[in-house]
Amino acid sequence: MPPIKKQPKKLAPSANVADIESKQALVSPNVASPSTSKEDKTLEKKNDMVFKGRQRTNGPLFEEDGYLWQVSSDPDGKPTRVCERIDIASMRQNIDTKEMELELVFNQHGQEMSKYISRGMLSRRNFLELMKYGVDVAEHTVSQILVYLNGREKRAPLKYAHSLVGFGEHDGAPIFKLQTAIGTNSEYIGNLLVESKGSFEEWARIVRDEVLGHTPLELALVMGLAAPVASLVAKETGLEVIVAHLYGDSTQGKTTATRLAVSPFGCPHTQQGGLIRLWNSTKNAMFASIRDTHGVPIVFDEASMHSGEFSTLIYQIAGGTERARLNKESELRESSQWSGVFFSNGEMSLLAKAVKNTGVRVRLTEFGNVNWTRSAANADALIEGLLKNYGHAGPVFVEHLMKIGIEAILNMWRAWRVRFHEQIAHKDQLSQRIADKMAIFLVTTELAKVALNVNFNTESIKKMLLEVVENISGEADLSKNAYNHLMEAVAQHNTKFETEHFEGNRSELWGKCESRNGRPREVLILPQVFNKIMAEGGFEDTTVILNKWRAQGILNCEAKKHTRKRVLCGRTVRVYVIQVKDDVEDELAWEEQKPKPRKRPVPSSPKASNLFDEN
């Protein structure tokens, strides 16, 4: 830095004028003297260039030529170089968390760098931590730099950002957040790949050529687009989160169908940040993927990677609310929520791995053994095209939803739920809940026709959904499934049951089969054995099953009890008495044994005795 010409002192007419000139000298030591040499004028010109445009209200530091300089407190002194350039280019507020960040720009060996930092970093101890990122700061300069940045912050422009995706609010108005937000000026700063790639026109061509005309693929795309519709309806009606599981052989195109479903909103891939996640993630990681997501579909791929049963996960995802937790201060932390449509796929049925509760079946919509793609060539063309073109249709579709308004959407949904429920062939107490979810897909079909100019076949999609509902209705009879499971267990372990001709396995006796006219009429079974058989079949709540059987006349029991006292091996014990229905008699492989010549003794072994414990 060239030296600054020493300034001669002026005679001040008054003390006040002298004070002003003294302060000006501290900030502007380059004021030229009335008489200067040629060399001094050259130096003054260079100094004028250095100080030109300087923000004089920023304190003793100013920026020039890629460095921060300190103005000398001595009028005769020259500026001192403090460090390489450090500045605040902008402030950024997260509209989801309300946190404020600063865009710090700095020079590192002549190269400009930038990094977002929290406002809490503008303290002496925290700011020194930025040295590891190449910020030119040291113990003896940090205080000066912080004073300078405090002034620069007040002049930095304010930007908005969001870290969550889907529906939300900003300044009291509804918005929808992807890479940019619909309804406000905000940029996404989260980890999901929800930006657009390729073009909407090419994506629409792929849909016309590879999707339309094949109902399973049309339905897959509709289910993905239904995520924002389901989220809007859920906010007004409390509709459950829709969880759809696609299972079957690996050649049926399940993964391709889920790629198609999420392609309107973001990257249809399992790569880092893609909208397709893996089942082998930890439970916390899985819920982090959907936490506070409202209206953007997420897929969990390859359910076979997950160990354990799925019941709890299904309940929690469909419930739309995270389990309540306490923070470090033992205070109840606010639970995260989510809404919309979420997908799963794998070679196996999740219901086969879940407990046999009616609640699980009504919360999970399964599509089993469906040929989602026409052929291998169809699947290859879809995958190749979708990985190059995605993220365009979702924003267009949501803009249409926000334009027509929630009341119009609700009216369409109410009409469809009635029409669909009327067309269910075998109705039960769960049919309306299932129809409510299926109506979301049919509403989406009609809305997408207008918003995206895609000619979906509504009638074919409805027919396929009705077939799915019939399968759900056939499997949703908890009492019937539990009854069949019990009778299969009795037939399989018939040597552990007494009959009139056979005293049973004395080391492990489960109960007794009583007959009339040579035909089995009642199964007597010990409660602890019954509970074990039900648990092995995935039926957790035996009380619900027993209540249903009592109402149906299948359970022969005392008033206000589920059991009766009967005699087993010469001892009176409490057992469940199950009536054998005629329609399953042929399925029971009762093995008749010849009577034994000896009298049946009372069992004395510990194992057999434990079976008669009434507790």
Structure summary:
The protein folds into 4 domains: 15-84, no CATH class; 86-161, no CATH class; 200-475, no CATH class; 478-611, no CATH class. Helix content is 38%, strand content 19%. It is built from 20 helices and 24 strands.
Blueprint of the fold:
Layout: H1 15-27, H2 38-51, E1 61-64, E2 67-70, E3 80-84, E4 86-94, E5 100-108, E6 111-118, H3 124-128, H4 142-153, E7 158-162, E8 166-170, E9 173-177, E10 181-182, E11 187-188, H5 200-210, H6 215-237, E12 242-247, H7 254-262, E13 276-278, H8 283-290, E14 298-301, H9 311-319, E15 325-326, E16 332-333, E17 341-346, H10 350-353, H11 358-363, E18 364-368, H12 376-386, H13 393-404, H14 406-422, H15 431-452, H16 458-475, H17 478-492, E19 497-498, E20 511-516, E21 519-525, H18 527-536, H19 542-552, E22 555-556, E23 564-568, E24 571-579, H20 606-611
Parallel strand pairs: 4-7, 7-11, 12-17, 12-18, 13-14, 14-17, 19-20
Antiparallel strand pairs: 1-2, 2-3, 4-5, 5-6, 8-9, 9-10, 15-16, 20-21, 21-24, 22-24, 23-24
Helix pairs in contact: 5-12, 6-7, 6-14, 6-15, 13-15, 14-15, 15-16
Characterise this structure:
- It comes from Tumebacillus amylolyticus.
- This is DUF927 domain-containing protein.
- The strands form six sheets. Strands 19, 20, 21, 22, 23 and 24 form a six-stranded mixed β-sheet that branches. Strands 6-5-4-7-11 form a five-stranded mixed β-sheet, covered by helices on one side. A five-stranded parallel β-sheet has the order 13-14-17-12-18, sandwiched between helices.
- Residues 1-36, 42-59 and 584-615 have low confidence and may be disordered.
- The chain is an alpha/beta fold and 615 residues long.
- It has four domains: 15-84, no CATH class; 86-161, no CATH class; 200-475, no CATH class; 478-611, no CATH class.
- β4 (86-94) and β5 form a beta hairpin.
- Helices cover 38% and strands 19% of the residues.
- The protein has 20 helices and 24 strands.
- α6 packs across α15.
- It is elongated, with a radius of gyration of 37 Å.
